[in-house]
Design a protein that fits this description.
By secondary structure, the chain is α/β, with parallel strands linked by helices. The chain is 39% helix and 19% strand. It has eight helices and six strands.
Length: 215
């Protein structure tokens, strides 16, 4: 059966530190949870993907709707700057995958889907910020690409708890699995998976046999 990968999204200093250009209010509060889950996944050799964004200094590749804020802030997440760095606590180590994105979803015009398929990944655990934007976009794309998805409820954050919880409800309502960090760690080394692809394939083949029996 396919494996599970662990994704950390946009945990960069320009998103997470107080008064950073793109500060997400709850970002710093989820760091300890992500760190605990990350350490546990490293011990059990779960594939780790660090997803983050780099912008050009002139803002030529910034989202249309973020450009004015980018200029007003004097830049943000510009490659080579301190603010673009991943938080020290979550710094990637050798052998982990680095995915650069420039839009909301970790899948949009990146190699993430290709790498996951090459590694035999059928399920992803999503952590990071922020819930209504990059987390939600990544989850929706993963669902569209037929991945099973787990979102860590205490390992993701937004501008407010209300926004965070509302988006978690939306995700749950489309079939996304919600777990806490403790629940994830207790499940290791085998993170629970529904194996939906295989179940659906089996049902399709069984129905074909009923409809078109061999003669």
């Amino acid at each position: 059966m396919g494996k599970t990968a662990f994704l950390i999204i946009d945990m960069q200093k320009d998103f997470c530190l107080p008064e950073a250009p793109f500060e997400v209010t709850e970002a710093i509060t989820v760091v300890p949870y992500i760190k605990r889950a990350l350490d546990a996944c490293r011990i059990h050799r779960i594939p780790i993907f660090h997803v983050f964004r780099y912008y050009r200094a002139d803002g030529s590749d910034v989202e249309l709707t973020r450009y004015d804020d980018f200029i007003k802030a004097g830049g943000g997440c510009v490659q080579g700057t301190k603010g673009a760095e991943i938080l020290d606590e979550l710094e990637p180590i050798e052998g982990e995958y680095l995915i650069i994105k420039q839009r909301w979803s970790a899948f949009f015009q990146t190699e993430l889907d290709c790498l996951l398929k090459r590694l035999g990944i059928e399920q992803i655990v999503v952590t990071g910020v922020q819930t209504p934007n990059c987390i939600r976009s990544t989850v929706w794309d993963a669902n569209s690409l037929d991945y099973e998805v787990i979102v860590l409820t205490d390992g993701t954050g937004a501008k407010s708890t209300e926004i965070h919880n509302a988006n978690l409800i939306d995700m749950k309502n489309i079939g996304i699995k919600l777990m806490t960090t403790d629940e994830l760690i207790k499940s290791l080394p085998i993170i629970p998976k529904e194996n939906l692809r295989q179940k659906i394939q089996f049902k399709i083949e069984r129905n074909k046999t009923k409809l078109f029996p061999l003669r």
